[in-house]
Amino acid sequence: MMNFELNSDFEAATAKIANAVFPNIQFQIIAQEIGIGNLSITCKNPRYFGDNFRIKFYPKLKTLIVSGYSHEGMVHLTYTPDNNYEWRNGSGLKISKPSSVGDKFEYLARTFYPFLQEFYLVEVLTDFSFSFELETALALIAAQSFPHYNFNFRYWQNQNKEVCLHFQGNRNIEQTLNIIPDPLCQKESILFDVDFRSQPKLLTINTRWNDDQYLLFYDSVGYLSWNTLQLENIHPPSVLGRRIENIAVKLYPILEEFFAE
């Protein structure tokens, strides 16, 4: 994660929302960026850690996570703007709404979401394009990791000069008829998003497998790190982890060279 400074208005608004749930607590507010374009806000009570909570906001995924402590231990609430609430424990397993903090965290989620959405609104720019040869090379990298799918992708750039690529691979029925059963080939499509920032250099890939969203971070020294929306530094997902890592390793130098021009 990378720290960044909050302006006074943002910090005051964050404290106001937190104090609506935890009155009379002077929270220390720490903001960090998760990967590229995602935000983490930690509200810390210097006197008692049990009041601490963290907000993670993923604007492209339209998802917000509230993490903190209940009487049963660490819990994570996943919120989406259709008023969908999903609760998990510290191990990532689904649980019922905790009686001790459930209403409080759900209030934080639905209040922070529109506030952060407005704050983090990023303009999409379309003032660049890849060559046909480069587009072909990028699609080929995806196809090498998932050979039974036909890929296409679209891309754009935002005002922070970050490039975003959305890949979609549709299963090739003819190629999958006579192969050894592969869990990946049961999926009609494979979707993943790549974000690349040239300064500081970082590439992230996010994808969904079954019920979980996975994020892979790859930096300029070749360090790979896997997260879910709730948990950090996890083991790579067994089915598609290595394939996504291969895509990151191959895409990084190509995008780095493109943005060095």
Care to describe what's here?
The chain has helices at residues 8-21, 102-119, 132-145, 173-176, 241-260, and strands spanning 2-3, 28-34, 38-44, 53-58, 63-70, 73-80, 84-89, 124-125, 149-158, 163-171, 189-198, 201-209, 212-219, 224-228. With 261 residues, the chain is of the alpha+beta class. It has 2 domains: 2-119, no CATH class; 124-260, no CATH class. Strands 1-2-3-4-5-6-7 form a 7-stranded antiparallel β-sheet. A 7-stranded antiparallel β-sheet has the order 8-9-10-11-12-13-14, with helices on one face. A hairpin with a 4-residue loop joins β13 and β14. α1 (8-21) packs antiparallel against α2 (102-119) and α3 (132-145) packs antiparallel against α5 (241-260).
Compact overview of the structure:
The protein is an alpha+beta fold.
Topology:
Blueprint: E1 2-3, H1 8-21, E2 28-34, E3 38-44, E4 53-58, E5 63-70, E6 73-80, E7 84-89, H2 102-119, E8 124-125, H3 132-145, E9 149-158, E10 163-171, H4 173-176, E11 189-198, E12 201-209, E13 212-219, E14 224-228, H5 241-260
Antiparallel strand pairs: 1-2, 2-3, 3-4, 4-5, 5-6, 6-7, 8-9, 9-10, 10-11, 11-12, 12-13, 13-14
Globally, the shape reads globular
Number of E strands: 14
Query: Overall mean pLDDT score?
Result: 86
Overall number of domains: 2
Q: Which percent band covers the strand fraction? A: 35-45%
N-to-C terminal Cα separation, in Å?
27 Å
Order of helices and strands: EHEEEEEEHEHEEHEEEEH
Contiguous helical run count: 5
